[in-house]
Amino acid sequence: MSATASRPMLDPATRDALQRCAHELADAARAAILPHFRSAALDTENKASAGFDPVTVADRAAERAMRDVLVRLRPDDAILGEEYGAQAGSSGVTWVLDPIDGTRAFMSGTPTWGVLIAVVTDAGPVYGLIDQPYMGERFEGGFGVAQLTAPRGISPLSTRPVGGLDQAIVFSTFPEIGTANERAAFERVSTAARLTRYGMDCYAYGLLALGQIDLVIEAGLQSYDICAPIAVIEAAGGIVTNWQGGPAHDGGQVLAAANPAIHAEALALLAERGA
Fold first, then answer.
1. What share of the chain is helix, strand, coil (3-state, %, to 5)?
2. Domains of the chain (ranges plus CATH)?
């Protein structure tokens, strides 16, 4: 995903305006989503012709609500959203939106889903929010900010300096990861780690930024799945790349790590035998 052809001048006033807009987007998404969470009448469809890729009325309502805010506050910006696709802009800024990352969790009633909002330029993601409306937690990173706003107050985000892979906690959404080769690569890292857990969707990236876990490894992602987590994790001191060590904001294979040392250990194992 290429944001735009020209890089915008993100002066302090522009950064402040983008930050305020992002919070308004998150607030609008919360209001659209929460009436549907744990509702017995939740309307769910399958978007996939093969397999199961659910979308709910809440996904669509949240993205529409965010797009309405952007029409009002940032009409010249481009938009890329999971449910309604791409809309061109002229400002050099693209908003990358996932109204509910973790729809399977949402329809199951587990509060590990979240709203993902990223500000992207041709340099990649420069600011992001991971918002968990039900728990009232908002992970924010970029423009000199790295913080969690929650019911108990505001806390700084900072990844932890784990000693080595043998002390690491690793997360991934699905045990099967992706292809057989991708699963084998993941299992090389998982076997070397202290603990592996599954199924947390975007919330795992927030936990990494908060210093609770050390690695998130996934494959088959879209840009709207990862742009906001990249901004949050990098602001907290972490590193996010693809499995070859390059930029990850286009999606695909993603390795998010608490620090460069553990990133290098995991990357070496993922690269063995040409994963």
1. 35, 30, 35
2. 12-156 (3.30.540.10), 165-270 (3.40.190.80)
